[in-house]
Amino acid sequence: MVNEKNFNIATKAVHGCKCYDPHTGAVSFPIYQSATFRHPGLYQTTGYDYSRLQNPTREELENTIAKLENGKHGFAFSSGMAAVSTILSLFAPGDHIIVSDDLYGGTYRLFEEIYKKYGLEFSYIDTSNIAQTKNAIRSNSKAIFIETPTNPMMKVTDIRAISVIAKERGLLLIIDNTFLTPIFQRPLELGADIVLHSGTKYLGGHNDTLAGFVVVNGNPLAERIKLIQKSEGAVLAPFDSWLILRGIKTLAIRVDKQQENALKVSKWLTTHKKIGKVNYVGLPDHEGYEISKTQASGFGSMISFSVTDSSIVEQVLERVQLIIFAESLGGVESLITYPIVQTHSAIPEKMREKIGVTDKLLRLSVGIEAAEDIINDLEQALG
Questions:
Q1: Tens digit of pLDDT for each residue in 281-295?
Q2: Is there a catalytic annotation at residue 176?
Q3: pLDDT at 6 (0 to 100)
Q4: Greatest CA span in the chain, whole angstroms?
Q5: How far, in Å, are 326, 373, 383 from residue 323 at the CA level?
Q6: Which of 19, 157, 319, 341 has the most crowded CB, counting CB atoms within 10 A?
């Protein structure tokens, strides 16, 4: 019998955890659209009691994402922000968390406008700078929260180096792995304690559902997260779980194609007279290129770039035809976003300017279309 531990990550993505429904043999894992489950008798259970606690479809998805991240326990939530909120619920008033200063604006808003009033403290640091990160640790520090690559400036943090610091000081290391997915990067293998995803993005891959994930190895940590999940109830519904399961089956081939396109598009962008700096980790002159090669097997398909004049932004957003001007990322369609107005509007202007999110910056999520069509659309939009 083939040892599935030796399977390529792409094969694991296709087959999931159980591969098929053991009860019926259904290759497409069924949608168990039931809120509750019958007990065979008093003090007896089928293993499923109430779908907020567990549902067979969600369980298959949670076990699948844990398997892909090489973790022991996976948890599926109704959105990426619900997953982040659950992680923050692990902490107590007075606890301090070090956070990547370049991060999704919704995460910043959750930290500052929701959890800060409950007594949590946050410091926003360039976590790609190991010395700065180490110096930011306080006596009440409990965790380091990192995006890598960051959103939207694509900075890369050395996960192994930060994990050493975290372990020395007894801190939890939390990695948002949304941009690279477990196909390209598996932070638990690099020393992280918690991995999270906005499953809405690459894992689903088709811009048709919201989802969030948390994956851990440690049993005590898993028990705490499980308690929060079932108590707060922000769980992923059966149908949405099935949609993400279906999306994951093609995850490997999608991200490979998107990365191939992103490299071509980013190289082209560097040659255009109306484009300033191009931020794509797969370009050899990117400052995080070498670190990325040591901890990831791919560079992903997220690009940000600045135009030479802010007036060009509106022109591009109005003229793109193939590329869709919309929030979100990671789907099969190429999407372009204006961070200062959309994804990062919650971040204070001074902080945005410090990290480089200016009125000249655009973010591009490269899809699976023909690369030449994406480039031609950008060329006509830039004029």
A1: 999 999 999 999 999
A2: yes
A3: 82
A4: 74
A5: 9, 9, 15
A6: 157
CATH code assigned to 8-249: 3.40.640.10
- Among candidate residues 201, 254, 352, 360, the one labeled active-site is 201
Round to whole Å and give the CA distance between 243 and 254: 16
Q: In what order do the strands lie in the sheet with 275-279?
A: 275-279, 302-307, 361-365, 335-337, 324-325
Ranges of the chain with pLDDT below 70:
1-3
Instruction: Give the domain ranges of the chain.
Output: 8-249, 252-382
Q: Which amino acid is at 294?
A: T
52 part of the active site: yes
CB 77 within 8 A of CB 211: yes
- DSSP helix/strand/coil, 147: strand
Spot the catalytic one: 20, 48, 52, 319: 52
Would you call 104 a catalytic residue per the annotation?
A: yes
CATH number of 252-382: 3.90.1150.10
pLDDT at 1: 38
**Is 208 annotated as catalytic?**
no
pTM of the predicted structure, to 2 decimals: 0.96
Q: Considering the candidates 95, 102, 126, 176, report the single residue annotated as catalytic.
A: 176
Residue 3: predicted pLDDT: 61
- As beta bridge partners, residue 176 has 147, 196
Q: What is the CA radius of gyration of the chain?
A: 21
- Helix then strand then coil, % of the chain, to nearest 5: 40, 15, 45
